[in-house]
Amino acid sequence: MATLGQAWGARLVALAMLGLLAGCAAEIEPEKTGTVYPETLALMQSMNMERGAPIFVRIIKQDSRLEVWKQDRTGAFRLLKSYAICHFSGALGPKKAEGDHQAPEGFYWIGRNQMNPHSREYLSFNLGYPNAYDRSYGRTGDSLMVHGGCRSVGCYAMTNEQMEEIFGLAHEAFAGGQDRFQVQALPFRMTADALDQHRADVNAPFWQNLKQGTDYFDRSAQPPEVQVCNGRYVFDAQTALTSMGAGGNCTRL
Question: How many structural domains is the chain composed of?
């Protein structure tokens, strides 16, 4: 038979074990999903948008803006929120090589597996650079992000408060059934005047190609489906079929 001292000793050991377990449980943080702020929820309501409706993101380097567009109940995408980009490195023009400190330009798709709630830069999502277009030109680099932390070399950095909401908007769109969302990373507003101002730039043909994608959106109020055919972005099925018929090679992004 156990002595009274042994019984108390066993009880103390059990209590200590419970305390350790409770301590471990307290250290397990819930998965970060971001937060859509009340004023943005009110804005959605005023714009006839479901909370879990699809989104797409547009980045404008020259303006240092990141825009979140969201589908309303008519099916059209409308600008929901615009955020000031805290920092990006490099100049106008696409990223071409590892270490060039350029932030990417082009059309990218973000799936759930590209969202990082455990990022060292608060929260982030991977742009998926290099995509099929980038690879067709031998462009190199990886881990190009949109992230918090307000500092960047080759990425688009936001404040933590901004990234909390951007991440939350993406999370809620995924929860609402969206499989992936598009990011349009652009050098400037893709107007005819802007392109004319940059017509002597070595990147002018590339930017003309990007404008075809934004023109598609302006006509349809829908983010375009995107293929890469013969080293060009293609935004409509007929052009892709023509490229394929001419012996071209197309890859859907």
Answer: 1
Task: Specify which residues 229 forms β-bridges with.
Answer: 232, 250
In a domain, 212, yes or no: yes
The yes-or-no verdict on residue 16 having pLDDT over 60 is: no
Active site residues: 147, 155
Q: Which residues contact 220 (CB under 8 A, 6 or more apart)?
A: none
Domain for residue 49, yes or no?
yes
Q: What's the predicted TM-score (pTM) here?
A: 0.86
User: What are the backbone dihedrals phi and psi of residue 18, each rounded to the nearest 5 degrees, phi first?
Assistant: -60, -40
CA distance 55 to 83: 15
Query: How do residues 194-218 score in pLDDT, each as one tens digit?
Result: 999 999 999 999 999 999 999 999 9
Residue 138 domain flag: yes
